[in-house]
Amino acid sequence: MKSKLLLILAVIMGLVTTALFFNYMKAYDLSILANANMTEVVAARQDIKKNQEISQDMVVRVQVPSAGVHPQAVRDFAEVEGLYALAEIAKDETILTHRLGSEKEENLFVSRKIRHGYRAVSVGLNFVQSVSNLIEPEDLVDVIFNELPPEGLSALQINTYLLIPKARVLAVGRRMQTATPESEYVEYTSVTLELKPEDAIKLINASEKGSLQLILHTRVIPAKEASDNASPSS
Predict the structure, then answer these.
(1) Helix (H) and strand (E) counts in the chain
(2) Domain enclosing residue 73, as ranges
(3) Cβ partners under 8 Å of residue 86, min gap 6
């Protein structure tokens, strides 16, 4: 009787073990199948605004079903870092390549070059006032104001002022990129500067009261100045 009971218990335990084993293998196979059908893509970690530059900490890698992956989905951080959003991108949304733009593409629109808190304002200049058309986008210039004397007074009484120091040049004529040796020379008669709103008003007002001249800064950084900037402050 005792041996018969043990036999029955052994059979039952065997059936239970077999059932548990098959259930485990079924779940394991489904897990493997699910992982095999997933693809890693890059998604927004936060809301990204239109025209905002994208950095690596703004995006995250996520797993999505391979069948639903968009052909233009970004797969690697390197494909997005330093680019600009051409449209609003919501948090957790997959990043698509056609919604990103490079700095070169940004340069087609002067409004995207302007830093926050600044404005773009153009000033008309002749060949001499523009430093013989040698000023290039991204140069720094000082704006000099020659104030014309009131009517009836001698021209010798013209007053000259440093109106705005170290203004950033956004464009010369309609060109927003620095010329290369292969670029065709095109003479320009206007320069667009990036200024604070109050300086833009000052410039416009001065242009109605006299003449303006630009003075070009060097782009070369002396070795001593570069080393001073690199050393930690005491």
Answers:
(1) 4, 9
(2) 38-106
(3) 50, 51, 98, 99, 100, 101
Q: Count the Cβ atoms, other than its own, within 10 Å of residue 163.
A: 21
The model's pTM: 0.56
Please check whether residues 119 and 211 belong to one and the same domain: yes
Q: Are residues 58 and 125 in the same domain?
A: no
Residue 208 reports pLDDT greater than 70 = yes
Specify the pLDDT at position 177.
81
Q: Are residues 130 and 83 in the same domain?
A: no
- Rounded to whole angstroms, how far apart are CA atoms 77 and 9? 59
Structure confidence at residue 233 as a pLDDT band (50, 70, 90): very low
Task: Please give the order of strands across the beta sheet that includes 140-147.
Answer: 119-124, 190-195, 159-172, 140-147, 210-216
**Radius of gyration, alpha carbons of the chain:** 33
Is residue 14 one of the residues assigned to a domain? no
